[in-house]
Design goal:
Layout (H helix, E strand, L loop, with lengths): L1 H14 L8 E3 L5 H18 L5 E6 L3 E5 L1 E12 H14 L4 H8 L6 E11 L4 E11 L12
Antiparallel strand pairs: 1-3, 2-4, 3-4, 4-5, 5-6
Protein name: Cystatin domain-containing protein
InterPro entries: Cystatin_dom, Cystatin_sf, Prot_inh_cystat_CS
Subcellular location: Secreted
Length: about 150
């Protein structure tokens, strides 16, 4: 009887459109908390990797959030190689390129090297801590954007 009552309670919450505690929640890429989490993840990765090709600007592709003992952000982020961004800025300043594509042509590159990185960031606000749980980066050949209308 207790199992039946639990099942009814759980199903009524799902039917009402409410999320289960600990479940994944789809976020808007424009949510300030999500963009801040992405910024933190990219900065932590840059510090931990000690790589000369540090990543800078980014585009959030499909962010998810899970509330546990803190918040885990699942972030797929398209990042740009910072060295090429700096080169474009220098060339644009020195040579007076009118637009970014003109600078890429001048540099002999079609576009800056982009990477798609999957970050799993644990944020525990009451401890003022952030920890990267998982990172996977790969060069992006083509990123397929899924159009989603956020309510």
């Amino acid at each position: 009887m207790a199992c039946w009552w639990l099942a009814v309670c759980l199903l009524s919450g799902i039917a009402a459109g409410e999320q289960l505690v600990g479940g994944l929640q789809v976020d808007s890429p424009d949510d300030p908390q999500v963009t801040q989490a992405a910024r933190i993840a990219v900065n932590l990765y840059n510090r931990q990797s000690d790589d000369m090709y540090m990543y800078s600007t980014f585009t959030l592709l499909f962010p998810l959030r899970q509330v546990v003992a803190g918040v885990i952000y699942y972030l797929d982020v398209e990042t740009v190689d910072k060295t090429e961004v700096i080169n474009v800025a220098l060339i644009r300043h020195q040579c007076g390129c009118k637009n970014t594509n003109e600078c890429f042509t001048f540099l002999g590159i079609l576009s800056p090297q982009t990477f798609v990185c999957h970050f799993e960031l644990l944020e525990v606000p009451w401890e003022n801590s952030n920890q990267l749980l998982k990172v996977q980066c790969r060069p992006s050949v083509e990123v397929v954007m899924v159009k989603h209308v956020w309510s």
